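so im writing up the methods section and need the Transcription antiterminator record in one place, dumping it here so i stop losing it
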Amino acid sequence: MINNRQMNIINILSDADGRMTGKEIARILNVTDRTVRSDIDAINKYYECQIIVSNKRTGYRIDSTLIAKKDIEIKEMIPQTSDERCIWIIHDLLFSDKEINLIKLQERVFVSGYSIDNDIKKVRNIIEAYPSLKIIRSKNHIRLEGDEADKRKLYKYLLTQETQGNFMNLNSIANFWNDFDLIKIKDEFVDVCDKYDYKIRETVFPMIMMHAGVAIERIINKNYQKCETDEKLKESTEYIVSEEFFRRVSKILNVEVVESEIELFALLLMGKGASDYRKLKSSKEEIKNLIAEILDNLSEYFGIEFSKDWDLKIGLETHIASLIERQKNNIKVTDIYLKEIKRKYPLVFDMAIHAANIIEERTGYKVDEAEIEFLALHLGSAYERINSHQKYRCVIIIPHNQMLSKPCIDRINSRFDDRMEIIKRFSFFEEKQIMEYEPNIIITTVPVKHSLDIPTVQINLFFSHEDESKIFQLLEKMDKRRYQDDFTTLIKKLIKKELFHVNESYESSAEIIEVLCDELIEKGFADKSYKEDVFKREDVSATSFLYGFAVPHSIKVSTKESCISTMILDKPVKWGDFEVRLVILLGIREKDNRLLKIFFDWLSNIVTDSKKLNQLLSVNSYEEYMKFVVE
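--- predicted struct ---
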């Protein structure tokens, strides 16, 4: 038999994204490299094959094919960094009725009590923003106490941090596949859509390309199924687009053209209209009821409302119908997502597990991890859509009957429906009932005095242009505040202390770029191609500005991690046409391109405020600089 530590090595390598060195494994298990080598030899001897493959240069990797053949059961995902452990601990505290035993926790994640103590300190810092939440420690146990509303807010905050920019980013989605370039496939799809003047909404485009990737993966692995549809489907524009798209893919990747995949993709493009063409052995009504139950469960358990997301419902309907057919025909989905989804997005994966449990209970079919990962992709995309279109929640107070209030509400909706949602109408103000709906805005047709920290605007019952202006100005003010909150959080992450330099002296702009780029390369934030690209951008046109600062950056090559290097010079350096004292080297990963707008919005505010700019130039420390930046 193999011992617990050896089983832990199998678990760690199964979770790892790629290879791990003996030192990395030893550090996690708190043993020597020699012990790790000895354990791996013992594991391979026990199973009489090379379950764990070694390479002197790159380290160890698990042979997942042999793991499956030997029917080795892999335990739960093991968090390998402090941040991963913090999320893991918070999740357990949020959704477990019991306390967490810290001694057992050490054994489960293979770290010392000292490391766990540091993790708990981080967790306490995270929950500081939620006044009612407290970590209660009793000897070797901890538990989370506080209001359920704050627990829900904490979970949604963590989920937002986890998904941000990943499920709506095609580059991130493309990384799931190694056998083909999804970005090139995307270009072909766009070309086909242009040819037939077929429009795709931007918000669902990443999800559609995700489905395309999955379909291609099935074709490559000859792991597809029959799709029963009405013959009229072939007359639709969606079918024509889908057919030409897959014929192009066939030529590019040298794979066969599969009729069922063409039909499934056409149904996906159709959206709501797909039900008119799909022939299901399972009742359409049963599947819709199943989806409604899943969304109700997610709302009740996680506090996340997906019921109005038609794109999610359509995607789930297509997937669950296919899932049931696969189970009936004993067809397995290729496991291509596990290392990415389960590790990188554990909270999204947890929602998918809830959905899978309901599917199992209602259909009797076991949903394996590969299917759960696909459900997670749907839910992650849907959650990102919620956040990318987050409207302000508004309650309105109108002490009149519905006949009089409806025209007023209708006019407000017609003008501001894209920016806010009226979630409740009240006839009178009462603090408790208002707070139950957690509004961002209160609109009232009568004077209202209250102590709530919620912006309130009074309008006329007969909604006028002046009233429209009042609401518009309030929304602009709130947008600015929201932007400031996002910016403050963001800028603290980007402007790193180890990349901040003050009272420096250099002779030329080229020398400064050389120094700052070399630092990023040395610290692992970028590689040499990034530096070359920064110089290439500078050759096109100097990145200096009239107000005495420069923002060197790359054209195409991104950094490995988004960051900002800052240098304040003792004396100005000639940089293009201007004298420069403040240098900001900008490094943004492709997946973080959304940060560029926030950064340049901030920069434009700085350069138009001479007082603020002078404050930045006069600082003597990182802390002083950050104080002026975020105030």
